[in-house]
Design brief:
By secondary structure, this protein is mostly helical. 67% of the residues lie in helices and 0% in strands. It contains 19 helices and no strands. α3 packs antiparallel against α7 and α12 runs antiparallel to α15. 29% of the residues are buried.
């Protein structure tokens, strides 16, 4: 079970727990860079609903103190083959845990076979929608009356209530914070796109043009910049990108969920992949690619398709271009 911020404050993490968490994070980062982003993202977006179904099952079984026919009937919609097994129905207290185990082995079995299930479960459990269902589940635990012993709340209704719940005692719910998360990560993408250029402090005309279009509030001269201007203005553009990220943080603070927002950003898999690809670009041969530096769209597409090779593969000489 995940610890929430409140429970963490009551009982600090032990040294062993911190070491285990750090190890899990390292494994997840490595696995994340070995699968194309679109494949991972699809599973990542599916994961919170399965996490929610597991918690809903735990709460329903606890409230009714037994495995009811109604509960099994509703679960057949999601996992019919699991419901028919004797081991699943025999122990109501373990139904939610067995369901999530089945999800890992069956629904996401392809991730397990390809070697990135640890990354999916690590980041999926930290998805902002997963955080919302965990928070709502804790509310249900503290107020058992929400699950009537006579009538079983449907999972769809339970899920919707979790998504509509106000977070961090603020005035915003999980669905309303999603655009702010996407906007912040877009700024992260822009920052990593220009990161390989920092060593040379040179902005190509193509890159400069795109930066202008993404920062319309910053007025720049229309004529092409000189070599000196390309070098001296680079820190200014970086400041503008940082200002965009700070604006997202300020909006989260105004909504009363800044700490929650920071936790979501820090545990989101997208920035990790972006930084991994930017590092790959910096390590690539820098002889000719600066002249034809990719557009933001091209760079982002290459980042999504990027897979980090094994150490053996990286030792082999390669002339592959920076953009796939």
């Amino acid at each position: 079970m995940q610890r929430t911020k409140a429970s963490t404050a009551e009982k600090p993490f032990s040294t062993n727990e911190l070491k285990a968490s750090a190890l899990a994070s390292r494994i997840a980062r490595k696995q994340l860079l070995r699968v194309p982003w679109n494949v991972f993202f699809q599973a990542y977006e599916e994961y919170p609903r399965w996490q929610g179904l597991s918690l809903w099952t735990r709460e329903a079984a606890r409230a009714h103190k037994q495995t009811t026919a109604e509960l099994l009937s509703r679960l057949r919609k999601y996992c019919p083959e699991l419901v028919e097994t004797e081991v699943f129905v025999r122990e109501p207290d373990l139904m939610g845990f067995r369901l999530l185990e089945w999800v890992h082995n069956s629904k996401f079995g392809y991730a397990k076979r390809k070697g990135w299930l640890d990354a999916l479960s690590f980041y999926g459990a930290r998805h902002f929608r997963s955080r919302a269902v965990w928070a709502y589940w804790e509310q249900c635990e503290n107020k058992p009356g929400r699950f009537s012993s006579n009538k079983l709340m449907s999972f769809d209704e339970w899920w919707q209530r979790a998504m509509e719940m106000k977070i961090c005692s603020g005035s915003i719910n999980c669905a309303e914070i999603a655009p702010a998360v996407e906007k912040y990560i877009e700024w992260e993408a822009v920052a990593n796109w220009v990161r390989p250029l920092i060593a040379d402090l040179i902005l190509t005309e193509r890159v400069l043009s795109e930066l202008k279009s993404r920062l319309p509030d910053r007025q720049r001269q229309a004529k092409p910049p000189s070599d000196r201007e390309r070098k001296t203005k680079f820190p200014t553009w970086l400041s503008a990108i940082r200002a965009g990220k700070k604006r997202c943080l300020r909006e989260a603070q105004e909504a009363g969920c800044l700490d929650w927002f920071k936790e979501v950003i820090q545990s989101h898999p997208r920035p990790t992949r972006l930084r991994g690809y930017a590092t790959h670009c910096e390590e690539s041969p820098r002889r000719n690619w600066l002249r034809n530096y990719p557009s933001f769209r091209e760079w982002l597409l290459a980042s999504d398709q990027f897979i980090r090779k094994s150490r053996i593969d990286r030792k082999r000489p390669s002339n592959r271009p920076i953009v796939a």
